[in-house]
Amino acid sequence: MQSIETGMLAVKYALDKKAVNLKLLDVRDLSTLTDYLLIATGRSDRQVQAIAENIKTELKHSHHVLPLAIEGMDKGRWVLLDYGDIMVHVFQQSVREFYDLEGLWSEAPEVELEQTEA
């Protein structure tokens, strides 16, 4: 599976759990670590955990794609799912604003998403 396909599936699975303000950034020309960054927001620690868990579970069971690493699932303020060619960041809003990954990667083109909020 190509990295953009994995990214778009992660978007779908995040939206299934009502993630908001999703951004998929194409960092292929800016980073040697990954191809895409998906940034999403949940409204509570439980929702952040549910979004990340749904992405992980659906990619595993439906597409046999496993993360290389998972960080932050226990706290639910910022969860990172590292799939190598795509990194998924699910934040609570205040944490997202503090770390400002969009600002850090402001030169990265944003992949157009059809529907990013419920």
Automatic annotation (TrEMBL):
GO terms for cellular component: cytoplasm. It holds the Pfam family RsfS. InterPro entries: Iojap/RsfS/C7orf30, NT_sf. It comes from the Bacteria. It is found in: Cytoplasm. GO terms for molecular function: ribosomal large subunit binding. One of its GO terms (biological process) is negative regulation of translation. Keywords: Cytoplasm, Repressor, Translation regulation. NCBIfam families: rsfS_iojap_ybeB. Interacts with ribosomal protein uL14 (rplN). Belongs to the Iojap/RsfS family. Functions as a ribosomal silencing factor. Interacts with ribosomal protein uL14 (rplN), blocking formation of intersubunit bridge B8. Prevents association of the 30S and 50S ribosomal subunits and the formation of functional ribosomes, thus repressing translation. This is Ribosomal silencing factor RsfS.
